Structure to design on (217 residues):
């Protein structure tokens, strides 16, 4: 009590080191500030690029399949179906990785470029291979006995898509079912999730390559 009366026990609290406001006064609301930072023109450009990467390469691949069928058949005779399946799988997976890292990472431009490159390659191969729900008959009608190569390309793309779907289901299930103090919660971390995703994708590729889905030449 004596110390408090003498002023020794009174705590000194520093409110601010700046006597004047460091943020200028403005009439803009929070919605106006967020609208200014949203950059709608940039998002429109990105959407146009993605649509062009989806439509253009696939259309050109279909055009090549119709206009240069004999040349493609000759080319297919020199490649292995499994190698084509791995190439289409690689392009699709790289596109997925680029898209995911574009959302998560600060350096968005390099990852978005990777996403576009993977998407363009995948769509071009899908166009040549005439990818759709029932592609087996279409590729055989177009390429005859050499249809196992475009079929392999389609299977590589489908394997990558199915791997992503399985990973999404398992990852969301972990987020819902696993408690915060559980050791399995480590699977929700970024790089562990990425490793988990790649394991599932490699497993899906192995099923396609060694499961008897791709006939040999």
């Amino acid at each position: 009590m004596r110390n408090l009366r003498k002023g020794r026990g009174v705590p000194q609290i520093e409110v601010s080191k700046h006597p004047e406001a460091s943020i200028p006064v403005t009439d803009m609301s929070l919605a106006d500030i967020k609208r200014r930072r949203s950059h709608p023109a940039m998002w429109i450009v990105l959407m146009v690029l993605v649509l062009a990467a989806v439509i253009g390469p696939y259309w050109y691949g279909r055009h090549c399949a119709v206009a240069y069928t004999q040349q493609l058949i000759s080319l297919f005779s020199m490649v292995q179906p499994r190698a084509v399946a791995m190439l289409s799988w690689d392009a699709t997976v790289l596109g997925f990785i680029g898209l995911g890292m574009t959302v998560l990472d600060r350096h968005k431009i390099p990852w978005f470029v990777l996403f576009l490159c993977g998407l363009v390659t995948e769509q071009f191969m899908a166009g040549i291979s005439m990818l759709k729900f029932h592609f087996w008959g279409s590729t055989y009608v177009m390429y005859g006995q050499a249809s196992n190569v475009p079929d392999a390309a389609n299977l590589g793309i489908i394997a990558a898509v199915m791997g992503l779907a399985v990973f999404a289901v398992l990852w969301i299930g972990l987020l819902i079912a696993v408690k915060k103090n559980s050791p399995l919660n480590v699977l929700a971390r970024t790089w562990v999730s990425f490793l988990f995703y790649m394991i599932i994708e490699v497993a899906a590729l192995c099923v396609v390559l060694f499961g008897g889905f791709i006939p040999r030449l």
About this structure: The chain has a mean pLDDT of 82.
